[in-house]
Amino acid sequence: MSALPDEEWPEARESHRSLVLLPSQHGPYTVEDWLALPETEERIELIDGSFVVSPAPASGHALCAKRLVRILDDAAPDDVEVVEAANVRVREEGFIPDVVVGWAEPIIANEVVLDSGDVLMAVEIVSPSNRKRDYLVKPASYAAAGVPVFMRVELHGEGVMPLVEVFAAEEGESVKIAAARAGELLSLVEPYEIVFDPAVLVGPRRR
Fold first, then answer.
1. Which pTM was predicted?
2. Could you say which of 10, 13, 17, 89 is the most buried, measured as most Cβ atoms within 10 Å of its Cβ?
3. pLDDT per position in the chain (207 positions), as tens?
4. How far apart are CA 148 and CA 153, in angstroms?
5. CA 18 vs CA 36, 42, 138: distances in Å
6. In the Cβ-directed half-sphere of 187, how many Cα atoms lie within 13 Å?
7. DSSP 41
8. Ordered DSSP codes for 137-193
9. Which ranges of the chain would DSSP assign to H, the alpha helix?
């Protein structure tokens, strides 16, 4: 993946929420450069030496993440925590998964960035702006870094939605181990026992 054209990398980018300051020099950037960026409500990830800036997700995306956190957290053992949008070092890249399931100790310690070894499952919820990354780039990167499980949630596409697919890291490769659409049950034993119908991730609240 090559760096984006110069006009897409201003030193400062203003939004209605924040001012995103990017380094004046052009990449390739390192994880250290990524961690040196100021805090912002926009997501800035480091992918193949380039900074990738994403605006805050749409409300349906945010609602899906919130509901999924609740499901995963309710099922989690005591030594595991579930959080949204944590910084994760994935070898030489810096990702911000929509949901992170990880060991409780580093999360409770308020680490600025989690190592891939701290993560039991990374979850990405696909949106139009990140589709290629969530289908091609991130599954392979997570598996190569040894993240045991990757979950991808597709909200838009053909067939009954949402579609939840789950992949395991096997010898550095991403291998699909489970999938379910709305109206079906997704049943996992890794990273721990989890059972839910993807339908609960969208639409009106179900009591």
1. 0.86
2. 89
3. 333 333 333 333 333 334 455 666 677 999 999 998 888 778 899 999 999 988 888 899 999 999 999 999 999 999 999 999 999 999 999 999 999 999 999 999 999 999 999 999 999 999 888 899 999 999 999 999 999 999 999 999 889 999 999 999 999 999 999 999 999 999 999 999 999 999 999 999 877
4. 17
5. 17, 8, 26
6. 2
7. S
8. IHHHHHHHTT-SEEEEEE-SSSSSS-EEEEEEEETTEEEEEEEEETTS-EEE-SSS-
9. 31-35, 59-75, 104-108, 131-132, 138-144
How far apart, in Å, are the Cα atoms of 53 and each of 35, 177, 191, 192, 200?
Answer: 14, 31, 30, 32, 29
What are the counts of helices (DSSP H) followed by strands (DSSP E) for the chain?
A: 5, 15
Give the whole-angstrom CA distance, residue 45 versus residue 31.
10
Q: Which domains does the chain have, with CATH numbers?
A: 6-54 (no CATH), 59-201 (3.90.1570.10)
Which tokens in the block code for residue 152?
């991808």
